[in-house]
Design goal:
The chain is about 35% helix and about 20% strand. By secondary structure, the protein is α+β, with helices and mostly antiparallel strands. The chain folds into two domains: about 30 residues; about 45 residues, no CATH class. Strands 2-1-3-4 form a four-stranded antiparallel β-sheet, with no helix packed on it. Strand 3 and strand 4 form a beta hairpin. The protein is rod-shaped, with a radius of gyration of 33 Å.
Length: about 100
Amino acid sequence: MKGKILNSPVKIQNSPIRPPKTLQAHHIRHMISGTLVFLLGVAANEAITYARHHWPRKVRWTAVDVQHDYVPASGLPGTNVQVEMGLTEDGTVVWRAKKE
């Protein structure tokens, strides 16, 4: 039996079951391309979010006063500014300076 094993074309080497993991060139390419695709997805999501935030909305200020092209303000009003509160179609509460 021992003679058959020694004469077989398959040589058993002193090695672990798996070869040691090494960082090869194609691994680096996969990491770079994966990172770029991830960042592209983040950029696309940010662009969509930005566009939705600055997209004109339909706002109901009172029962009869509806504004179809309201663009939300980027910040809060000043402390001495009188404001009107309105409701968008998606339920967001928005504000505008009170008309006198």
